[in-house]
Design goal:
By secondary structure, the chain is an alpha/beta fold. It has seven helices and five strands; from the N terminus they run βααβααβααβαβ. β4, α7 and β5 form a beta-alpha-beta unit.
């Protein structure tokens, strides 16, 4: 049985946008891919790109190219995109209750509920709070 590695958006963005730890993410995906994402990651990535354009960090052409590249990576199976499971909201609510001492945000709780549903072995993130929550759930973490 193969290891399931789930990338949240904070880590996946580094594969497409040159920023701190981008080289580490690229090397990790090349060595351990394909990696898993979810439909939530796709939506969040689209939002992230639009925000970066509005902030003048990328232009409209780059925004479109990066998103198209990410979609092609899904089609080519470099990224394995999972649908959001039934009961996702309830799973996130449960995690927010169980992990009440960790200041999880809504989307983080949803990503973690997806990771739990997929029974991932490793969560890749650039978010320290998400990493702490995953560890509390017994999920190994790669922090970029």
């Amino acid at each position: 049985m193969s290891t399931i590695i789930y990338f949240d958006t904070s880590a996946l963005a580094k594969w497409y946008i040159n920023e701190v730890k981008s080289e580490d993410v690229e090397q990790y995906i090349q060595e351990h891919g394909p990696v898993s994402i979810s439909d939530l990651t796709v939506v969040e990535m689209r939002c992230l790109l639009a925000r970066r354009r509005r902030e003048n960090n990328i232009d409209a052409k780059m925004e479109a190219e990066i998103f198209a590249t990410s979609q092609e990576d899904i089609r080519q199976k470099f990224l394995i995109c999972h649908q959001m499971p039934d009961g996702l909201a309830a799973g996130a609510v449960n995690l927010l209750s169980v992990l009440s001492d960790i200041p999880l945000r809504t989307l983080d709780a949803l990503h973690l509920a997806i990771a739990k549903d997929l029974t991932v072995d490793i969560l890749a993130t650039a978010d320290h709070i998400m990493a702490d929550a995953a560890k509390a759930m017994g999920i190994s973490v790669v922090l970029f």
